[in-house]
Structure formats: C-alpha cells, structure tokens
Amino acid sequence: MAESLFIDSSLSKTEKYQSLLPQIKALTESESDIIANLANICSALKYGMDFFWIGFYLVKENQLVLGPFQGTVACTRIDFDKGVCGACYREQKTLIVPDVEAFPGHIACSSLSRSEIVVPIFNHGSVAMVLDVDSTLLDDYDEIDKKYLEEIARWIEEKLI
To answer: Strand, helix or coil at 58?
Structure first.
C-alpha cells in the first residue's frame, strides 16, 4: 500500500492530476473500507491539487450527509433541493459553478468559498454520493478538473463501492 504522495508543485494542472491518479489508485486498491478510502482520496486531492475544501456528501436518510472531507468545518446535512450539491444530485451530472454567489440557492458553508465543482458518484444507477470541491478563487474549475475528478468518481464506483 502506498501511504505517501509525490507531487511536483511545478507541474501543470493536467500533469498533477495525471501524477495523482495512479497514486490514489495504489493508495485505495487494497483497502476494503469505503470511509478510509474516501478519507485518503480527500487528503490526496487536497494536498496534491492545493484545494481549499474537498469532501464527500453521502446519500443517507433522504439527504446528503457529510462524509470524509479536508478543509474548514462544513455543512453536515444538505437537502436534495438545496445548493450546488443538491443540484448535482438531482441533475445527476457534474456541475461547475464559476461564482457561487450567482448560483440560485447556494449554501454558504464557508464565506471564503467563491467557486465550486461537484461530481456525482453512482451505485447501481443511483447517485450514492457527491464529490464537492470548493475554491477561494472565482472561476477556478474547468474541463480539466471535470475530466479527472470524473475519472476518480468512476474509480470509486467500479472499485470501491
């Protein structure tokens, strides 16, 4: 099991993701506990990509409930009809929000959050959880983030759930 990460800070965003993906897979492939794996994925992405906040919200009790995360204190429960995470759950697709203040119904778990990307993770065709990433910068996420975070989501679906 790999228990340390090696990311060169001088790499481009794409190169960082390309370096992180095999390390995340090595870190999680021999562990059977989903919570342990999600926690390590959060840590790897937080420190590898220098994210402000990253975490998983798990579908439980007809809400999104906070799971493993890295960053400032977060909202514990999110209704399916609230915020970017709720919209991702309902629409069942990745959402990139360049300015959270302009998103109708945005939930401000941290006043420092300015942009966000949320990726759905499926189990047997239903959204089982969402991967939420926040930035203190406006318009910080793009198609590169979408591509690689969705690849991590598919890894979770296929190998970890």
So the answer is: strand
Is 65 among the domain residues?
A: yes
Are 84 and 55 a contacting pair, CB within 8 Å? Answer: no
19 in a domain, yes or no? yes
Tell me: the pLDDT tens digits for 70-81?
A: 999 999 999 999
Which amino acid would we find at residue 114?
Answer: R
Q: Is there a domain that residue 102 lies in? A: yes
HSE-CB of 33 using CA atoms within 13 angstroms: 5
Question: What residues contact 79, with CB distance under 8 A and at least 6 apart?
Answer: 63, 64, 86
Judged against a pLDDT cut of 90, whether residue 93 lies above it is answered with: yes
What is the reported pTM?
0.95
Domain range enclosing 135: 13-160
Sheet arrangement for strand 77-78? 77-78, 63-70, 53-60, 126-135, 115-123, 95-97
Instruction: Find the CATH number of the domain harbouring 34.
Output: 3.30.450.40
